[in-house]
Amino acid sequence: GQNIDQPTEMTATEGAIVQINCTYQTSGFNGLFWYQQHAGEAPTFLSYNVLDGLEEKGRFSSFLSRSKGYSYLLLKELQMKDSASYLCALLSGGYNKLIFGAGTRLAVHP
Amino acid sequence: DGGITQSPKYLFRKEGQNVTLSCEQNLNHDAMYWYRQDPGQGLRLIYYSQIVNDFQKGDIAEGYSVSREKKESFPLTVTSAQKNPTAFYLCASSTLTGTVEAFFGQGTRLTVV
Fold first, then answer.
1. Is the separation of the CB atoms in A98 and A43 below 8 Å?
2. Residue B35 vs residues B24, B64, B74: alpha-carbon distances, Å
3. Which of B102, B106, B107 is facing A98, going by the closest CB pair?
């Protein structure tokens, strides 16, 4: 089976940098995603990693180490609108099963 | 515009009734997924499908059924066997090659009274 762990809650200050970690166990790894979800809304795509290393996209970066079963999402220059849940998701298996972690609720304060 | 549409946005049903949630996409995606989300929780996979006329059970398939008769459509039926059906239901679709990013519909909030 698959298992994904991420912290339940984090807080950070506007303008700062925050790192949200995700660890996983799986067989048949096909890729790892990060999504943002505001309360009551659908998740929106942030990043995708399939090879080891860092993917940068504006204020957001995501890192993957397949050998360690570890990823992180880095958010820079935090804004109040970044207060949301951040979901780590794993694509695995021959049927491309896409499962999500429980999410990390990030609160950004002034 | 291409996208994925779920309807209705809000749905109320009496306990013991079956209800079907609609999910349609015009993105030409092969893969489609159904998730359930309870308040303050993550997304749990109910069913998923890679091709027409084929689908796989996810982690919480009991009390649910799906069909995939057309590439564009993946309806979910919440049956009376589902013990606690009140939840937020999300449908997603993706390609099978390339970035395989999943696009989500806006969700259906089902309340069973």
1. no
2. 15, 11, 12
3. B102
Q: Do B101 and A45 touch (CB under 8 A)?
A: yes
Residue range B26-51: mean pLDDT, rounded: 94
Residue of A nearest to B54 (CA): A95
The residue type of A3 is: N
CB atoms under 10 Å from CB of B7, counted, come to 12
**Cβ distance A96 to A30 under 8 Å?**
yes
Q: What are phi and psi of A82, to 5 degrees?
A: -80, -5
Q: Is A55 on the interface with B (CB under 8 A)?
A: no
The three-state secondary structure class of A80 is helix
Q: Indicate yes or no: CB of B104 within 8 angstroms of CB of A42.
A: yes
Averages of pLDDT over each 10 residues, chain A, 110 residues: 92 98 91 95 94 95 96 98 97 87 97
Q: Is the peptide bond before B8 cis (omega within 30 degrees of 0)?
A: yes
The 10 Å Cβ neighbour count of residue A32 is 25
Distance of residue A36 Cα from the nearest chain B Cα, in angstroms: 12
